[in-house]
């Protein structure tokens, strides 16, 4: 099968569909991680449509009900990673670390044709796999990632395993910038550099916001590019809303070193009416009739 | 008593030669955790992770997902206390075959409180999917890797190092969820684990001479804890039971036994011997087990209390406590 080559314009349209659907969730369900959709939709759409080498989805296009937690008696349940296609040699792998980006990921899968749009309607519905903070049964998820900065280590271990087995394929890990405050992130980068994981790529959504305010006011993490470089990675910095720039960044040569793509983003990108809420964009709800009217009017204009 | 040296070292090498997917991960304590020789014999199956325990646990999860069998080696405290969230969210939740080989169980190290693994069983028993094993002698250690692999799941082993006694015949291999019956009796049931078993054997030898009939079980599987032999032992004794553990008396073997007594409605009186809900200091083994009343003579005292009788045993009647050089690191 010849893979379709998406234009930047087409990718942008996919990202906007994702934003619109997450806005719909936020309006209908009393709030959502909407700022994260605004900051990450372009990057995630680019990764799925133009960067990662993924096979066809193997997940149920309609979604499934919660298949139970992993245990000795339940190890063959349908994994969320099925929606990213086969995990066998040659294919790339995708690990989402900030599990609260789940809604954005489900919508990205739908917008990329890996799941039906109707399935996404089960978002945050009791008894289904589309939890607001996903885990390894949730579409698109490889790991149980909600405790931040743990997935980078699991993803690196996966990249290391693939290297040991001589398997091709890149392991992509998508992180938020708040997670860079966790020590484990830097442990992992340090070890990834030591083990020369040239098959590992970290994509970081540097949207500059965390729950309590602007990142620079709460706990500074800059200069990111230099920090990653000094820990032994190859690092590039791009506008995370510039599709072509992300595509180009992913082609950066990084032999025997992990690659970090720092995506500078805005949690109100594509939704200027959110700007007045800054810096409180972690979880966005529309409560007053005016707020709801404004959000609905914006959604209709999209 | 025959002493064996570096039993786990040889066992780990043998196991990894038979299973090329087995890999050892160390957090800079490999040479203190009996994988120094492993590193030189099987360098391609040995990965130094540096002092990154939290990362190491997640890394192991990634390797395990890809078909490897990671064996994490460090002092036990760094494999559960420091990394509990990673252990739970990256390994235990996913029910991955990652084995935590935790050295320095209990208080027997001059390393002091930072190195004393006193509540690992209590903490890890509450973690779903976990399996917990405790080593008491060389025979236990020789069989544990195979047994734990066959039992599957995320595994924590309270491992012993350097000089360990051979308490059980080498051909009587360790069995999953199956205690070793060291003696049969009807007065008192004693359940021991880790190095307490060696101590218990000394005490029981003297107790039996004084006419006390002891049902003694050496327990190596601490989770699950559903061995029917435990209930049978509890049912047959007249005076009650004693749990004897190299751990605090909260959440470990004693709590396990108490739960069995309650769940089966047995009403057996239970004395819990071990570190009493406190932290300890670092010192030599001989000093510590006396100081914290975890020595063979303390067990004699507990038996006397249970049967309500002074047996007139002098401390000197017990076999000399085996001198052991618990050199730090």
CATH names the topology of the largest domain in chain B as Rossmann fold
CATH class call of chain A? Alpha Beta
Radius of gyration of chain B equals 19 Å
Order of helices and strands of chain A: HHEHHHEHEEEHHEHEH
Q: Assign a percent range to the helix content of chain B.
A: 25-40%
What's the overall average pLDDT of chain A, rounded? 97
- Percentage of residues in helical conformation of chain A: 25-40%
Describe the protein in words:
The complex is a heterodimer of chains A (302) and B (329). Chain A is an alpha/beta fold. Chain A has a single domain, classed as Rossmann fold (3-Layer(aba) Sandwich). In chain A, 37% of the residues lie in helices and 11% in strands. Chain A has helices at 8-28, 34-51, 102-111, 117-120, 151-165, 183-194, 215-218, 224-230, 243-250, 289-301, and strands spanning 93-96, 171-176, 200-206, 209-210, 213-214, 234-239, 259-264. In chain A, the strands form two sheets. A five-stranded parallel beta sheet of chain A has the order 1-2-3-7-6, with helices on both faces. The longest helix of chain A is centred in the N-terminal third of the chain and has 21 residues, at 8-28. Chain B is of the alpha/beta class and 329 residues long. Chain B folds into two domains: 8-165, Rossmann fold (3-Layer(aba) Sandwich); 180-308, Rossmann fold, CATH 3.40.50.920. Chain B has a seven-stranded mixed beta sheet, with helices on both faces. In chain B, helix 3 (53-65) packs parallel to helix 5 (84-92). The two termini of chain B are 25 Å apart. Mean pLDDT of chain B is 95; it is low at 323-329. Chain A binds chain B through residues 69-72, 75, 135-136, 142-144, 146-147, 150-162, 164-165, 183-184, 187-188, 190-191, 194-195, and chain B through 47, 49-50, 52, 54-68, 85-86, 89-90, 93-95, 128-129, 152-153.
């Amino acid at each position: 099968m010849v893979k379709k080559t998406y234009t930047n314009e087409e990718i942008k349209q996919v990202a906007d569909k994702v934003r619109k659907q997450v806005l719909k969730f936020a309006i209908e369900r009393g709030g959502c991680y909407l700022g994260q959709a605004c900051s990450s939709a372009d990057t995630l759409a680019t990764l799925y449509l133009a960067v990662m080498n993924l096979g066809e989805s193997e997940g149920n296009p309609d979604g499934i009900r919660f298949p139970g937690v992993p245990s000795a008696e339940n190890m063959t349940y349908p994994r969320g990673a099925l929606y990213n296609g086969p995990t066998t040699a040659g294919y790339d792998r995708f690990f989402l670390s900030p599990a609260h980006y789940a809604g954005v990921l489900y919508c990205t899968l739908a917008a990329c044709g890996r799941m039906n749009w109707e399935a996404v309607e089960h978002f945050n519905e009791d008894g289904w796999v589309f939890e607001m903070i996903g885990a390894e049964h949730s579409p698109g998820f490889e790991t149980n990632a909600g405790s931040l900065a743990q997935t980078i280590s699991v993803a690196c271990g996966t990249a290391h395993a693939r290297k040991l087995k001589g398997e091709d394929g890149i392991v992509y890990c998508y992180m938020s910038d708040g997670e860079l405050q966790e020590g484990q992130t830097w442990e992992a980068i340090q070890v990834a550099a030591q083990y020369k994981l040239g098959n590992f790529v970290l994509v970081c959504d540097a949207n500059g916001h965390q729950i309590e305010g602007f990142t620079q006011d709460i706990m500074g993490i800059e200069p990111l590019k230099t920090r990653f470089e000094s820990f032994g990675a190859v690092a590039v910095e791009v506008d995370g809303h510039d599709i072509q720039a992300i595509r180009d960044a992913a082609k950066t040569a990084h032999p025997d070193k992990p690659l970090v793509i720092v995506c500078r983003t805005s949690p109100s990108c594509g939704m200027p009416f959110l700007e007045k809420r800054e810096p409180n964009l972690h979880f966005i709800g529309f409560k007053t009739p005016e707020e709801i009217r404004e959000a609905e009017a914006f959604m209709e204009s999209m | 008593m025959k002493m064996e040296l570096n039993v786990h070292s040889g066992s780990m090498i043998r196991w990894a030669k038979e299973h090329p997917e087995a890999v050892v991960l160390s957090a800079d304590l490999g040479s203190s955790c009996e994988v120094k020789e492993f590193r030189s014999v099987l360098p391609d199956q040995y990965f130094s992770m540096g002092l990154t325990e939290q990362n190491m646990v997640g890394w192991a999860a990634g390797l395990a997902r890809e078909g490897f069998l990671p064996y994490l080696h460090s002092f036990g405290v760094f494999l559960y206390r420091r990394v509990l969230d990673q252990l739970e969210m990256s390994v235990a939740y996913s029910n991955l075959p990652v084995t935590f080989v935790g050295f320095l169980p209990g208080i027997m190290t001059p390393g002091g409180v930072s190195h004393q693994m006193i509540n690992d069983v209590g903490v890890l028993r509450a973690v779903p999917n976990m399996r917990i094993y405790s080593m008491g002698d060389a025979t236990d250690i020789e069989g544990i890797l195979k047994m734990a692999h066959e039992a599957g799941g995320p595994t924590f082993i309270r491992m012993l190092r350097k000089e360990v006694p051979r308490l059980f015949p080498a051909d009587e291999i360790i069995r999953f969820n199956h205690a070793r019956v060291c003696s049969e009796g009807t007065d008192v049931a004693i359940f021991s684990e880790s190095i307490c078993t060696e101590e218990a054997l000394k005490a029981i030898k003297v107790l039996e001479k004084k006419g006390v009939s002891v049902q003694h079980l050496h327990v190596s599987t601490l989770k699950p804890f559903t061995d029917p032999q435990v209930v049978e032992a509890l049912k047959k004794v007249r005076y009650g039971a004693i749990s004897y553990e190299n751990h605090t008396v909260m959440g470990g073997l004693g709590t396990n036994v108490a739960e069995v007594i309650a769940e089966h409605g047995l009403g057996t009186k239970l004395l819990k011997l071990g570190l009493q809900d406190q932290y300890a200091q670092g010192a030599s083994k001989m000093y510590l087990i006396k100081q914290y009343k975890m020595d063979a003579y303390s067990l004699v005292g507990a038996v006397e209390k249970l049967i309500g009788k002074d047996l007139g045993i002098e401390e000197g009647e017990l076999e000399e406590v085996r001198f052991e050089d618990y050199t730090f690191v």
